[in-house]
């Protein structure tokens, strides 16, 4: 049954990749593999946990035994039965409760991502419905594909460092819908946005969830990650851009606008909503820094603000226009299938983490590779298949932060050591190799309905070349 979980995940992954030939929405497949993996896990939980691969279970058993040995000798049998520690011991005796607890634990993390995504998508949709992006698109006059691609990619690279790669991808995808009419051309530009957003997020302590983890965990500092990983990240974007610049020809065709669309919203209202919307997105990392609350709290706070502003702004307008521009109506336009896809795929990956599959993978990398460049390169490639968060979490658990002054191989593991910085780069940019390999890619895939196979043929090699170029740059800088 332990291997059946892997089989379910692989078959589901193939079904997602072949979404268009199968004509089955990837969200449905993701939800099914999310439920099936956990169902198999809990139905054979005693055997799976007895294999000793689950780090969470092994840690719980060790803690429970320590508590038992410490507390029980000092209590009578009656006191022990009434003790609060009995719950911990019972948990060890009942693996079923452990799995339920693990699922609930992972659901908290997954829900934070989903609420963040839902809030960001809604804010972007509000800006879009109020024609706020028209303020920006009207300033971008060029229709030359190469020039437009460079403009979009550079904006994305730096914006993702300030916001994060997921939010930036959502914003830029909405922007490209106003700039490019042809679907396949827009797919290409959105895919390059994913690549640029992941590259931009890798060198910022708040640009990607994995860099945030390493920053909070003390493996890296903000100043070091910015100064030492910026150039490799920039190279990972510039190399693919340079390659496609030689092959990309012609001009983009912009979507046609009706007179109603261009005159329904006054310019000052477009500007106000754009300013509030972008300000709400930019405020998220500030809110987190001030309150230390999860980022999704800042996102839904921003959504609440823009919701109130739009309600007050349109009070005296016609019923039809007020209904069209209300957040309640706009919520119906948000791509909820993307949210369900995230829910399913992250739930399935969480099962692999809880049952110990990813722990085995991390141990194998450590044993068989044993070189920080090889290990991190492999982690980056693997992050294009499974979520980079548990992979980075596994690496953080495998290696302790070495003390300053440590010499030899272990010196790579001091704070701001080569291993941790390269891990931040590889985990952040490696996900670009496959469309499903990063939160930014999954969001773009859901919003634009990008075909997995199309991305594999058109973008994956470019992304890998950029990824490898960044690693080589880092190696030349610090080896």
Number of strands: 0
The residue-averaged pLDDT reads 83
Unreliable residue runs: none
Give the structural class.
mainly alpha
What kind of sheet is the major sheet? Answer: none
Quick one: overall form?
Answer: globular
- Taken in chain order, the helices and strands follow as HHHHHHHHHHHHHHHHHHHHHHHHHHH
Rg, please? 24 Å
In percent, how much strand structure appears in the residues?
Answer: under 5%
Output the number of helix runs: 27
Could you estimate the helical fraction of the residues in percent? over 70%
Question: Strands, helices and their partners?
Answer:
Blueprint: H1 2-17, H2 19-22, H3 26-43, H4 45-50, H5 55-71, H6 77-81, H7 86-93, H8 95-129, H9 133-137, H10 145-162, H11 165-179, H12 183-202, H13 209-217, H14 222-245, H15 259-263, H16 267-291, H17 295-313, H18 319-325, H19 327-330, H20 336-355, H21 357-368, H22 372-382, H23 388-398, H24 418-429, H25 439-448, H26 452-458, H27 460-478
Helix pairs in contact: 1-3, 1-20, 3-20, 8-11, 8-16, 8-17, 8-20, 10-11, 10-12, 10-14, 11-12, 11-25, 12-14, 12-24, 12-25, 13-23, 14-24, 14-27, 16-17, 20-25, 21-23, 22-24, 23-24, 24-27
């Amino acid at each position: 049954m332990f291997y059946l979980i892997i089989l379910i995940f692989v078959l589901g992954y193939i079904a997602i990749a072949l979404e268009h030939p199968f004509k089955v929405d990837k969200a449905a497949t993701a939800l099914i593999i999310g439920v099936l993996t956990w169902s198999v896990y809990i139905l054979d939980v005693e055997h799976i946990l007895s294999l000793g691969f689950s780090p969470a279970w092994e840690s719980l058993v060790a803690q429970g035994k320590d508590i038992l040995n410490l507390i029980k000798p000092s209590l009578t049998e009656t006191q022990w039965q009434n003790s609060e520690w009995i719950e911990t011991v019972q948990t060890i005796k009942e693996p079923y409760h452990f799995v339920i607890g693990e699922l609930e634990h992972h659901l908290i993390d997954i829900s934070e991502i989903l609420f963040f995504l839902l809030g960001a998508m809604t804010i972007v949709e509000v800006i879009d419905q109020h024609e706020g992006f028209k303020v920006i698109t009207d300033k971008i006059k060029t229709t030359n594909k190469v020039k437009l691609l460079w403009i979009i990619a550079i904006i994305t690279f730096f914006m993702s460092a300030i916001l994060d790669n997921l939010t930036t991808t959502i914003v830029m995808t909405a922007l490209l819908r106003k700039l490019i009419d042809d679907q396949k051309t827009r797919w290409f530009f959105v895919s390059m946005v994913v690549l640029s957003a992941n590259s931009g997020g890798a060198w910022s302590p708040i640009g990607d969830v994995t860099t945030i983890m390493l920053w909070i965990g003390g493996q890296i500092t903000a100043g070091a990650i910015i100064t030492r990983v910026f150039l490799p990240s920039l190279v990972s974007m510039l190399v693919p851009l340079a390659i496609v610049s030689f092959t990309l020809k012609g001009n983009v065709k912009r979507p046609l606008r009706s007179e109603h669309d261009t005159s329904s919203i006054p310019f000052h209202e477009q500007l106000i909503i754009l300013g509030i919307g972008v300000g709400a997105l930019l405020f998220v990392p500030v809110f987190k820094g001030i309150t230390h609350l999860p980022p999704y709290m800042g996102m839904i706070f921003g959504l609440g603000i823009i919701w109130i502003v739009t309600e007050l702004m349109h009070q005296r307008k016609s019923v039809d226009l007020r209904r069209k521009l209300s957040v309640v109506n706009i919520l119906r336009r948000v791509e909820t299938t993307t949210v369900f896809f995230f829910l399913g795929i992250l739930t399935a990956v969480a099962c692999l983490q809880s049952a110990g599959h990813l722990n085995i993978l991390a141990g194998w990398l450590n044993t068989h590779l044993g070189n920080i460049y090889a290990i991190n390169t492999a982690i980056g490639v693997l992050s294009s298949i499974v979520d980079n968060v548990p992979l980075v979490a596994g690496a953080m658990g495998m290696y302790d932060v070495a003390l300053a002054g440590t010499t030899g191989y272990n010196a790579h593991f001091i704070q701001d050591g080569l291993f941790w910085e390269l891990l931040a780069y590889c985990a952040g940019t490696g996900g670009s190799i496959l469309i499903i390999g990063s939160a930014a890619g999954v969001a773009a895939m859901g919003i634009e309905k990008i075909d997995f196979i199309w991305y594999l043929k058109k973008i994956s090699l470019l992304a890998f070349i950029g990824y490898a170029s960044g690693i080589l740059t880092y190696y030349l800088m610090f080896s």
